Amino acid sequence: MVNQPARIPATTPALARFLPAAITVGIVSAVALNIRSQLKTESQTMGS
Fold it and tell me: pTM of the full predicted structure?
């Protein structure tokens, strides 16, 4: 991935609005999957 400059041209307001949302959704889903897998492994090792 190429790091884009912080300033986004005003000609792409849709992209400027969509990119942060997509990045946030990706991070949140990754964190949720990580927490879920950790909880699964912990419950398995504890034998509950």
Answer: 0.52
SS3 content of the chain, % helix, strand, coil (to 5): 70, 0, 30
Instruction: Note whether 8 and 16 are within 8 A (CB).
Output: yes
Q: What is the mean pLDDT for each group of 10 consecutive residues in the chain (48 residues)?
A: 63 80 95 93 73
Place of tokens 């492994």: 41
Q: Under a CB-based contact definition with an 8 Å cutoff, are residues 38 and 31 in contact? A: no
Residues 31 and 4: their CA atoms lie apart, in Å, by 24
